[in-house]
Amino acid sequence: LAQLYGPLNMLGFIYRSVNQSLVDTEKLLKLLNEPTDVNDKPDASDLIVEDGSIEFENVTFSYDGRTTALNGVSFKVPKRSSVALVGESGSGKSTILRLLYRFYDLKGGEGRILIDGKDIRDVTQASLRKAIGVVPQDPVLFNASIGYNIAYGKFDATTEEIEAAAKAAQMHERIVTFPDGYETKVGERGIRLSGGEKQRVAIARTLLKNPPILLLDEATSALDTSTEKDIQNALQHLVEGRSSLSIAHRLSTIKSADLILVLKDGQIVEQGNHTELLAMGGHFASMWADQVSANEDTSPTDKKS
Ligand code: ATP
Hints:
Blueprint (H helix, E strand, L loop, with lengths): L4 H7 L6 H11 L25 E8 L8 E8 L4 E6 L5 H8 L11 E4 L2 E2 L5 H6 L1 E4 L10 H6 L7 H10 L3 H4 L19 H15 L3 E5 L7 H15 L3 E5 L11 E6 L2 E6 L1 H7 L2 H11 L12
Bound molecules: adenosine-5'-triphosphate (ATP).
């Protein structure tokens, strides 16, 4: 366990329970024990987000100094727009989210990442992460009440706020069927929630946190149609009015994204909206055709063949 304290300190979260935030953030972006040398500069200022626009400017990044994870990646997420990342496994999708969350800092010559025009290396990590909400693939629930698990996004939330978030996340109706409602214990020692329910708890948490920027990692596991629908509804509430970057495994879920970036070997090889990308008849179109021919919108398309 001692090994895990490094990443926690690095994250700088001010959460109630050290262990809990550790487990959560560790799972967030599959970062277990990755070394980091991210430090606040002595003159770092707090990030003040006005629009929440994001820009990657010619970003090149390698984890090990030998293989390139991202190679000259440039794109913009205009304020309050939704940008989706697609591409086969290992193409660099998670790396983009990790860099924006500043689990790694870009070095000189590796490009820049800007939020509202401000280089994220020049701001405090705490203020950066406060501005960003993350909905991971497989959210961690604590052995505590479902209400506590939702309030984890904002510990001073009122009961009304917690319920409103659960409603918007399509989770309230399920919670009221639990023996003690919002006081019911969940997690390993309580009621076990399904993957789809856990994601909705994470969505409710993030709604409460109310960040201007969102990072979403869609679950790869197939969900049944009604769960999928609930999650899509919940996400719609969450994404509205915020800038979002999502990793999508099912192309059907990002039909309405403002921009889709298709990654291959660390580079953006195509970009456009769903219709434009289909018309191009390239990588995206063939991923789409594969999915349609599998006659199964729920099958992930990012497996390496
Ligand atoms: P997936 O869909 O499987 O999650 P991805 O598109 O998110 O894949 P990344 O995780 O961003 O891909 O990986 C991009 C490249 O960086 C891959 O070649 C991967 O092997 C490499 N990589 C990822 N994490 C590390 C790490 N911690 N150390 C070294 N190389 C890594």
